[in-house]
Write a structure and sequence with these properties.
mainly alpha; 189 residues
Length: 189
């Protein structure tokens, strides 16, 4: 019995503690490297933005949002690497599932913002052309581009769900959105 207990302590406690301690040290190194790389990338991006004079074209708050998204994406990547290094399956799986949601939501918001900018640009371009029925065409193009980007954003945000569930949600939201647009335009006339 004593030999069995000694074998258990040596095999599982002492042996695994050494490996676990090495994994903790490597995880801390990943975290520190991620923080340093995130700060360095933020600094480099700010210098590039200043040299390109993007503040004249784009609002400063949007630039700050973009830089923060890049910085936090790097932090999340290195945090995920550090968690995988610890080799604690329950904790790693749980936190990894949470960490995949955050970039998905950020990506969805970026898709919506890009879609809106493209839709407004195309609408204005069509309205300036003064072609026949340009108002109707500009409205159709505006809503179509918004719809396409919103669908991609929704599928990006719900990436962790089953594809069939996401498709059902897309169909329901498409019907509701179409009904809302029709109602809004009918009320304006």
């Amino acid at each position: 019995m004593v030999n069995l207990l000694a074998w258990f302590l040596q095999e599982f406690v002492i042996g695994n503690w050494r490996v676990f301690l090495i994994n903790i040290i490597q995880a801390v190194i990943f975290l520190i490297a991620g923080i340093l790389i995130g700060i360095l990338i933020k600094f480099i991006l700010k210098k590039l933005i200043e040299k390109a004079n993007l503040q004249k074209i784009v609002r400063q708050s949007f630039i700050e949002l973009f830089v923060s998204i890049i910085k936090w994406s790097i932090y999340i990547l290195f945090l995920s690497l550090a968690l995988k290094q610890l080799e604690i399956p329950e904790l790693t799986n749980w936190l990894t599932s949470i960490l995949t949601i955050i970039p998905a939501l950020v990506g969805a918001l970026l898709l919506i913002a890009a879609g809106f900018a493209i839709a407004v640009y195309l609408r204005d371009l069509i309205e300036e052309s003064n072609i026949l029925y340009y108002k109707v065409l500009s409205i159709i193009v505006f809503y179509f581009v918004l719809y396409v980007f919103c669908i991609f954003a929704l599928k990006t945000a719900l990436i962790s769900l089953d594809k069939n569930i996401v498709n059902i949600i897309v169909i329901i939201l498409t019907g509701l959105t179409f009904a809302g647009i029709v109602y809004w335009h009918a009320r304006q006339k």
